[in-house]
UniProtKB/TrEMBL annotation:
<dbReference type="GO" id="GO:0034354">
    <property type="term" value="P:'de novo' NAD+ biosynthetic process from L-tryptophan"/>
</dbReference>
<dbReference type="InterPro" id="IPR014729">
    <property type="entry name" value="Rossmann-like_a/b/a_fold"/>
</dbReference>
<dbReference type="InterPro" id="IPR003010">
    <property type="entry name" value="C-N_Hydrolase"/>
</dbReference>
<keyword id="KW-0547">Nucleotide-binding</keyword>
<dbReference type="GO" id="GO:0005524">
    <property type="term" value="F:ATP binding"/>
</dbReference>
<dbReference type="InterPro" id="IPR014445">
    <property type="entry name" value="Gln-dep_NAD_synthase"/>
</dbReference>
<keyword id="KW-0520">NAD</keyword>
<dbReference type="GO" id="GO:0004359">
    <property type="term" value="F:glutaminase activity"/>
</dbReference>
<keyword id="KW-0067">ATP-binding</keyword>
<dbReference type="InterPro" id="IPR036526">
    <property type="entry name" value="C-N_Hydrolase_sf"/>
</dbReference>
<protein>
    <recommendedName>
        <fullName>Glutamine-dependent NAD(+) synthetase</fullName>
        <ecNumber>6.3.5.1</ecNumber>
    </recommendedName>
</protein>
<dbReference type="GO" id="GO:0003952">
    <property type="term" value="F:NAD+ synthase (glutamine-hydrolyzing) activity"/>
</dbReference>
<feature type="domain" description="CN hydrolase">
    <location>
        <begin position="5"/>
        <end position="275"/>
    </location>
</feature>
<comment type="subunit">
    <text>Homohexamer.</text>
</comment>
<dbReference type="GO" id="GO:0005829">
    <property type="term" value="C:cytosol"/>
</dbReference>
<dbReference type="InterPro" id="IPR003694">
    <property type="entry name" value="NAD_synthase"/>
</dbReference>
<comment type="similarity">
    <text>In the C-terminal section; belongs to the NAD synthetase family.</text>
</comment>
């Protein structure tokens, strides 16, 4: 009797609607799985068409082309003698489902539709798909002719069933079903399913990986079994970065771990496990066995195929300890991989970044530098795809990237855009950082353009606006700052289009933005300034995390120029200098600290707190440092500024999604952009609570703490 089963799961860098490329990567994963002895291969969710097709799922073409790819897979000798589990949309009785199509030797065994659809945060699956609501039921699915001609089958089972091979039983979950409180693996395990599979389209969020790993391990800790998880990886055409982390677990322990961040388009994880370990683990759990004796059975599709080897000497894999990345490592690796995918797939020649010498633009530059490191390392490791992409990007078929500094010079242009309000310190910091990472650096002055624009206004109106320090009003002061900021955006795009042309090189550059998630939330940016760019790798990352990332880069990349950047107070440098020194600072302008902004953001989005609820939570959290009236003032100021500036989110540059309190208006954080900024009812409720505290205690929390 066979004992050792060898299974494979994949992390594939699929691209929405890239049917040809997606097919090629699926074939490569199958070849690798077979070469390493696997008898079952699991791929990511919707891998044939790519997960991020969005409203293209409505198009019949998407379903048609998915079936055409499936036909290629079915008829290929490469898919013989291995159970292949692929993902695609399927229309059944005029209803669209997110499905797994499981086949063996030119025969479809089962089409398993998704039961629990992801419909929170960045996910909108209920917009395009319908969940399968017929638990433990299968129906006949009539195959399209293009598939019938290959398989010779007219109908196949469609629904909530499991596969019974000669030696074991397999059951499928799809992504969200693992996260659901009533996950199918619970009942399937009680019904004797020994191998659970999960095909995911799960994206990266800072500090999220351990949650996914814990869910997979806990799935088999109580019930026993083998759990195999495959996931999408890379940027498939959107703000999300799918972070791989394919894994295999058995009886509550991790057996194999895939990489979370990698430039490899195809990664295959293979493990050999002993089915008897599952059976003996389950045998001693009496509560599990009592529940199993009463379970409603799943429809079983019999498969005349064995997953195990008759060779009892085949070595099996042992448990390992999962290694998690620190948040700083995640920032260094995740956005860098996302940038690489975007660069190579957009067919541009590199990036341009307005480098101000502050923390945000410097962190963005460091992420590009990290990308260059990863490209050179991938080429060194023999990644032919990365080498081919690098050669195409730099337009040199003989080039091999070996030194990150040298590669950075070819693909990365930084530009310091000085004005009369810029300090020599920030100019020097930007120049030194550019030298240390190797970017092609440009220094320019925007004063002539600013004066020309203001001159046009003065010519038309006969009025000359002035900064506040020169006697101007707040409106004049803000308008003069905004002119500088917007001129920088125009110049950034001009230089992105023509810098390489001026150097006798082909191609154009993608403009990078560098507004962090906290500034976006507060609206501390000029609409259509340098925050307006093609993409923004730090737009979902907090200022606090960026500071920690800068320290990481000092230690790991030896970028000593970052030390002075870390110690300098953040400033926009849009107001006149005082005695040659910067007088304007970000936190003073905002009326709140970055640490406070991060707290507001998490309460607003993650804790779902409006003004009143936020006040109620913060009077307890801040009782040692603030009185109730001070807390009320801070909360009111935040919500006024947030609501006044919410309209800026409608034009926010597409940003790497890394934080669950992102204010991204496109998909993740759906709210009005025209508010009643007085919040009269909400603020009245806060005032009533403050008055109640005053009447009850007659003193402040801060005084009590003293």
């Amino acid at each position: 009797m066979g004992r050792a089963v060898t299974v494979a799961c994949c992390a594939l860098n699929q691209w929405a609607l890239d049917f040809e490329g997606n097919l090629e990567r699926i074939f490569r994963s199958i070849d690798i799985a077979k070469s390493r002895g696997a008898r079952y291969r699991l791929g990511p969710e919707l891998e044939i068409c790519g997960y991020g097709c969005s409203d293209h799922y409505y198009e019949s073409d998407t379903v048609l082309h998915s079936f055409q790819v499936l036909a290629k897979l079915l008829e290929s000798p490469a898919t013989q003698d291995i159970i292949c589990d692929v993902g695609m949309p399927v229309l059944h009785r005029n209803v669209r489902y997110n499905c797994r199509v499981i086949f063996l030797n030119k025969k479809i065994l089962l089409i398993r539709p998704k039961i629990s659809l992801a419909n929170t945060g960045n996910y909108r699956e209920l917009r395009w798909f319908t969940p399968w609501n017929k638990a433990r039921q299968v129906e006949e699915y009539f195959l399209p002719r293009i598939i019938q001609e290959v398989t010779g089958q007219e109908t196949v089972p469609f629904g909530d069933g499991v596969l019974a091979t000669k030696d074991t039983c397999l059951g499928s979950e799809l992504c969200e079903e693992l996260w659901a409180p009533n996950s199918p693996h619970i009942e399937m395990g009680l019904d004797g399913v020994e191998i659970f599979t999960n095909s995911s389209g799960s994206h990266h969020v800072l500090r999220k990986a351990h949650t996914r790993v814990d869910l997979v391990n806990s799935a088999t800790a109580k019930n026993g079994g083998i759990y195999i998880l495959a996931n999408q990886k890379g940027c498939d055409g959107d703000r999300l970065y799918y972070d791989g982390c394919a894994m295999i677990s058995m009886n509550g322990e991790t057996i194999a771990q895939g990489s979370q961040f990698s430039l490899d388009d195809v990664e295959v994880l293979v493990a050999t496990l002993d089915l008897e370990d599952v059976r003996s683990y389950r045998a001693e759990i009496s509560s599990r066995n009592l529940a199993a004796s009463k379970v409603n059975p799943y429809p079983r599709v019999k498969v005349n195929f064995a997953l195990t080897s008759a060779d009892v000497s085949v070595p099996t894999c042992m448990p390992i300890q999962w290694r998690h990345h620190s948040p700083e490592e995640e920032i260094s690796l995740g956005p860098a991989c996302w940038l690489w995918d975007y660069l190579r797939r957009s067919k541009q020649a590199g990036f341009l970044l307005p480098l101000s010498g502050g923390i945000d633009s410097s962190a963005t530059a460091c992420i590009v530098y990290s990308m260059c490191h990863q490209v050179c390392q991938a080429v060194k490791n023999g990644n032919a795809d990365v080498l081919a992409d690098a050669r195409r990007i730099v337009n040199d078929e003989t080039y091999t990237p070996e030194d990150p500094h040298e590669f950075c010079k070819r693909v990365f242009t930084t530009c310091y855009m000085a004005s009369e309000n810029s300090s020599q310190d920030t100019r020097n910091r930007a120049k030194l950082l550019a030298e240390q990472i190797g970017s092609y650096h440009i220094n320019l002055n925007i004063d002539a353009a600013v004066k020309a624009i203001v001159g046009i206004f003065s010519l038309v109106t006969g009025r000359v606006p002035h900064f506040s320090v020169c006697g101007g009003s707040s409106r004049e002061n803000l308008a003069l700052q905004n002119v500088q900021a917007r001129v920088r955006m125009v110049l950034a795009y001009l230089f992105a289009q023509l810098t390489l042309w001026s150097r006798g090189m082909p191609g154009g550059l993608l403009v990078l933005g560098s507004a962090n998630v906290d500034e976006s939330l507060r609206g501390y940016l000029t609409k259509y300034d340098c925050s307006s760019a093609d993409i923004n790798p730090i737009g979902g990352i907090s200022k606090t995390d960026l500071k920690n990332f800068i320290q990481y880069c000092i230690e790991n990349f030896q970028l000593t120029a970052l030390r002075s950047i870390m110690s300098a107070p953040p400033t926009a440098e849009l107001e006149p200098l005082v005695d040659g020194q910067v007088a304007q600072t970000d936190e003073a302008d905002m009326g709140m600290t970055y640490a406070e902004l991060s707290i507001y953001g998490k309460l607003r989005k993650i804790a779902k707190a409006g003004p009143y609820s936020m006040f109620c939570k913060l009077i307890s959290v801040w009782k040692e440092i603030c009185s109730p009236i001070e807390v009320a003032s801070k909360v009111k100021h935040f919500f006024r500024m947030y609501s006044i500036n919410r309209h800026k989110m409608t034009t926010l540059t597409p940003s790497y999604h890394a934080e669950n309190y992102s204010p991204d208006d496109n998909r993740f954080d759906l709210r009005p952009f025209l508010y009643n900024t007085a919040w009269s009812w909400q603020f009245k409720c806060i005032d009533e609570e403050v008055n109640a505290f005053d009447s009850l205690y007659g003193f402040t929390f801060a005084a009590l703490a003293m």
